[in-house]
Amino acid sequence: MLAKVYVTLKNGVLDPQGKAIHHAAETIGYQGIADVRQGKYFEVKLDSTLDESTARAQVEKFAHDVLSNPVIEDYKVEIV
Amino acid sequence: MLTSASARQSVFDVVQSGTSSYLQAKRLNTMKFGVVIFPGSNCDHDTYHVISKVIGQPVDFIWHKQEDVDRFDAIILPGGFSYGDYLRTGAIARFSPVMRAVTEFAQAGGLVLGICNGFQILCEAGLLPGVLLRNRDLKFICEHVNVRVEQTNTAFTNGYAPGQVLSLPVAHGDGNYFCDDATLAELEAENRIIFRYCDAAGNATDAANPNGSLHNIAGICNRERNVLGLMPHPERASESVLGCKDGRAMFLSMAESLREMIKLRA
Q: What is the CATH number of the domain that holds B184?
């Protein structure tokens, strides 16, 4: 079982890296890119003995406590 | 653990009442500073040098795997790049065994100073509110900046004059202080913004803000005023031979505060 965790900056938190990437895209000539926000993606492999709801609870807690900083970031967990 | 009522006391109130578990736990009459070493710390020896040679106080290193810091009176988390800044600055260091001990030490009223990466670790650990984001212009900044002393009623700044402008070096890529509006209002209302970036005349202007920090924040303390974090490096500005000694009074303030605390518990 694999968990995919997406960590993104909350709305309103300045993302200078995303802005720099957006600016580069405009400089190169890409059309219609309105904004870029940079985030993080984690693949978490889970022990096969865990049932899905336990696994999800574990990964949700892990994402909240470790993978993200709740002051500035949101997270989303997908189990595949 | 302090109760919520006593949590509002300043460190001086705690000292005067003489009732904190921190004071009860201490028996010795000499002060002892501790400087934590994480993998990737790089200002640990500078800090140790200033404590031992410049202000002449007993100091030991504390390895990050150490689980007990009871024999110390003040703990400094030095600058550097703990755990390579992996995940987020200070994020991995927060989970090291020593930080569990430092958290208990801080909650019991012990003095904790976080410099640069130490500030980032204190924020990640929840000992200070907010977070240090990537600098506004994305550049690593390594230069002397002017910093205004906003509050002198802390154990770290009582040797400065209110409003005094210090010249201190900064060296960071992630020093852009951020918190939510409610926290920012609370920091302002409770006089917990201890240092602000300013120009040479002491004006906290946007042009004098090197990294985009909210309200030009360079350093804050916790509600009990025994935990302070700041991005500038006072340990790199404590001797004339290095061109500037504006940082020295921070360590002298700590030593003086500890002397008072020890006098009261004797």
A: 3.40.50.880
